[in-house]
Write a structure and sequence with these properties.
Elements: H1 14-44, H2 48-133, H3 137-209, H4 219-234
Helix pairs in contact: 1-2, 3-4
């Protein structure tokens, strides 16, 4: 028997072991661990009979693992074919869904158009009913002519009222101006009368207090002076 390499295989990391366990399952993982143990025993054994037994056991285990791998490959292929079939069926279903969506959109558009057409038809029918209740063209023209004549008459009356209003407005403004002038004249006359009264009172006061050359005046002299100033007050 050829000399076997006694160097131990590199240890698998924790991530690799976990990934292999997920791919192969717990049973297959135990088988692989058993193969690795037998391989170490085979490499470390010095007994030829034990080595033969270990080698046969190792071959049988490897053959079993190969069969499981073949089964797994078949299962994977079957799953791949099933996945492809499901994908094709999914595409077909998606295509049908898209076609159904387009059909729904088209049906909604047709429904909106039908509703709009129905609304227009109802509006046309309503307008036709209103038109039938309206008077004829000749009657409408006659009414329009009468309304125009009435409008012209009303416009003429409005113009006359506007003219009368403007005239009265001007007369009222003139009256206000005249009243203002009269007030100014009355005010000026009042001030003049006040000045005249002031001058008269000052003249009377001066006459009473100024001595005359004939001696003291008696009561009769004061009366005559008062009578002489009366015409001035009247003026």
């Amino acid at each position: 028997m050829a000399a076997l390499d006694t160097q131990a295989p590199p240890l698998l990391g924790q991530g690799d072991a976990f990934r292999n366990r997920l791919l192969l399952g717990d049973a297959e993982t135990r088988k692989l661990n058993k193969i690795i143990e037998d391989t170490f025993k085979l490499l470390q054994s010095t007994n030829s009979e034990e080595r033969d037994v270990l080698l046969l056991r190792l071959k049988n285990a490897i053959r079993a693992v190969e069969l499981n791998v073949i089964k797994t490959e078949h299962v994977v292929k079957m799953h791949s074919v099933e996945t492809q079939n499901y994908q094709e069926k999914g595409k077909a279903v998606a295509s049908k869904i898209e076609q159904s969506r387009e059909d729904v959109i088209t049906a909604k558009q047709n429904l909106r158009e039908a509703r709009a057409h129905r609304a227009q038809q109802e509006e046309y029918d309503a307008l036709a009913g209103v038109i039938l209740t309206l008077p004829s063209r000749e009657t409408s023209l006659t009414s329009i002519a009468e309304l125009k004549a009435e409008l012209q008459q009303l416009q003429a009356e409005s113009d006359a009222l506007d003219h009368k209003y403007e005239m009265r407005k001007k007369n009222f403004q003139l009256l206000l101006h005249t009243v203002h002038d009269i007030k100014q004249l009355l005010k000026a006359d009042g001030e003049l009368l006040h000045d005249v009264e002031t001058v008269r009172q000052e003249a009377v006061a001066d006459t009473r207090h100024t001595p005359t050359s004939g001696g003291a005046k008696g009561p009769g002299d004061d009366t005559s002076s008062a009578k002489e100033t009366t015409p001035m007050e009247v003026d």
